[in-house]
Amino acid sequence: MKFFSFGAIVSAVVISSSSLALASGLSEGTRSQLAGHIAKYEPRMTEVAHQIWSNPELGYLETATVDALTGELEQNGFEIERGVGNIPTAFVATAGSKSGPVIAILAEMDALPGFSQDSIPVQQAVEGIESGHACGHHLFGAGSVAAAIAISKWMQENNVEGQVRLYGTPAEEGGSGKVYMVRQGLFDDVDVVLHWHPSDQNSASQGRSLANVSAKIRFRGESAHAAMYPERGRSALDGVEAMHHMINLMREHIPQETRVHYIVSNGGAAPNVVPDFAESYLYVRHPNPAVVQDVMERIEKAAEGAALGTGTEFSVERMSGVYSVLPNDTLGRVLDSNLRTARQIEWNDEEIGFATELQKTLRATPPLSKVGEVEEYSFGEQGFYSTDVGDVSWVAPTVGLGTATWVPGTATHSWQAVAAGGMSIGYKGTRLAAETLAYTAAELLQSPELIEKAKAEFDEARGANFSYSALLGDREPPLDYRVTK
């Protein structure tokens, strides 16, 4: 596995200068055309988003969601390839010509378990529903589809050469769905990738995430009566505890930014029985994928030593693995300029009342007026989250934005996010994202020099010796990882 030297990236100076943002290169005519297509489709976009919100589906189980999204795309002239990456709910929808730039748009779709919530400003589950879109992926998917449809229609009306592709990417929440799509080479001929994400503010700043590997390390020993015949037993839990002790000693001797966290997901069933099976579920994170890979390999050696020392056997299953996001300043500035020229969010009295009530349940209460503003552009800030968008960003120049689909102060993965995402506050933020993506795609399709500049930055950031290799190895997609066993 080859990675470039990440030192220059980690030490990059954060640029914060909205005054340096590029002026949008789109003509008023193009902007008006695209905005018109978004406005015409917006009622249907809202219906699709609400349909998905009302039937939340977990990672790799998003069958009804896929039917809804692909149905919209097919009705608007897209060709659909289903089941890509050996994932039944992954798809690629394509429109346009075989010549010209290829612009990809990502569409996430999975919900989270345990977040059932009605679209009201007080916590209240919906009867018969256990999951919920606490990360807003129902909006993500519907908004990306809206943008793709608008771009396709504009390309047809103006005889613009190129392709727009909508990538339906399942199981972002811990399932690493995009990694399997990247590993299969589905992004190899893409020129630029666009994406967005629900948020409590509007921003096209380009930052970095953490690379991440998760694994289940299992120990197997021999059971015995813990009081009568302890000498006949070999404790699998001892193996887990010995490994954890070595990991904690290791913390002094790994790069400072590394994060290792774990739980004992199975430690036995009764204190008076020497457990013959135990399992540790752990994560390793760092800004540099190479460091994550190195630390994980050292942990696997610690597991081997723990097994030898306790007379047990061990196995390692990498559950997921994602690269850090590789940001692109060239594309970020184009996206920022188009976000600023799009029609900003305006709430009516009912929405302001909803937001005011919901903010009473939040720890942070920024001014509600922030939903109509765009945050100052910045580049290079380090974030402390992980996403499978990271892998995409290392095989094609990638850029993303966030729009205010939630009440200011709302935390990601919260019932408050589910509530706002199921009503007009969420839908208005989605419209802004769709419009911004459509403007940006059109500007790139008309400006090959921008694409070349973005690619040059991308190539320099990756380094000449970079070769992509998935952090999760050659394992098959864990299609049942959300299935209750």
Automatic annotation (TrEMBL):
One of its GO terms (cellular component) is cytoplasm. It holds the Pfam family M20_dimer. GO terms for molecular function: dipeptidase activity; para-aminobenzoyl-glutamate hydrolase activity. Residues 1-23 form the signal peptide. GO terms for biological process: folic acid catabolic process. It comes from the Bacteria. Keywords: Hydrolase, Signal. InterPro entries: Amidohydrolase (IPR017439), Aminobenzoyl-glu_utiliz_pB (IPR017145), Bact_exopeptidase_dim_dom (IPR036264), Peptidase_M20 (IPR002933), Peptidase_M20/M20A_hydrolases (IPR052030), Peptidase_M20_dimer (IPR011650). Gene3D superfamilies: 3.30.70.360, Zn peptidases. Coiled coil: none annotated. The keyword Hydrolase applies. Residues 213-306 form the Peptidase M20 dimerisation domain. The keyword Phosphoprotein does not apply. This is Amidohydrolase.
